[in-house]
Amino acid sequence: MAIRQILVPTDFSAPSRAALDYAAELARPLDATIDVLHVWEAPVFVPPSLLPEAGVADLSIIEIYRKNAEASLEQFVTEAKGRGVPVRASFAELGPVANTIAEFARRRAYDLVVIGTHGRTGLAHVVIGSVAERVVRYAPCPVLAVRSVKAPQAAA
Questions:
Q1: Cα–Cα distance between 141 and 138 in angstroms, integer?
Q2: How far apart are CA 92 and CA 101, in angstroms?
Q3: Exposure class string for 2-19: b at 16+ Cβ within 10 A, else e
Q4: Mean pLDDT of the chain
Q5: Could you give the percent of the chain with pLDDT greater than 70?
Q6: Longest Cα pair distance anywhere in the chain, in angstroms?
């Protein structure tokens, strides 16, 4: 199977940057395209102190989050292009993160998903979970998980 389209989901973290850089290295010799996806979730609770004052803004909270997600994504892609990463397109989607990534990859028929992982273990992994792990389970194509730092060497 040829790799022609690569999807790189991002949460704007160091592992996401590492995944995008890795995808660029894969894409160049394959002449593949790279698209970047940021999935954001609607807030469950917004403290009243963060709500806009009446008459100050005509935007809903969801619209404010969407605009912030799009602005952050634009900045992330601009920085990536500045490093020479050939990003074809970028998308901001609302939804549950792992499921939305897998469904987006399915809808657009990506050949590969390259995703950053924080490498959490133990209680942090149990409590927070792993988006990358869930994407591996549900994506319709191969998924490559990339860490931003080298894993510790196993004892001999």
A1: 9
A2: 11
A3: ebebbbbbbbeeebbbbb
A4: 85
A5: 78
A6: 65
Residue found under tokens 């990506």:
110
Average pLDDT over residues 45-63: 63
Q: Give the three-state DSSP class for 57.
A: coil
- Looking from the CA of 142 toward its CB, the CA atoms found within 13 Å total 9
Q: Which two tokens stand for residue 72?
A: 């952050």
Residue 64's alpha-carbon distances to 35, 40, 90, 91, 156, in angstroms, are 24, 12, 19, 16, 52
Q: How far apart are the first and last CA of the chain?
A: 37
Paired residues of 116 in beta bridges: 146
* Residue ranges of domains in the chain: 10-35+58-90, 97-111+118-148
Cα–Cα–Cα angle for 142, 146, 150, nearest 5°? Answer: 145
List CB contacts of 64: < 8 A, sequence separation 6 or more.
52, 57
- Residue 10, both tokens: 């991002």
Point out which residues pair with 136 in neighbouring strands: none
Using one digit for the tens of pLDDT, what is the confidence trace for 101-152? 999 999 999 999 999 987 655 554 444 458 888 999 999 999 999 987 655 5
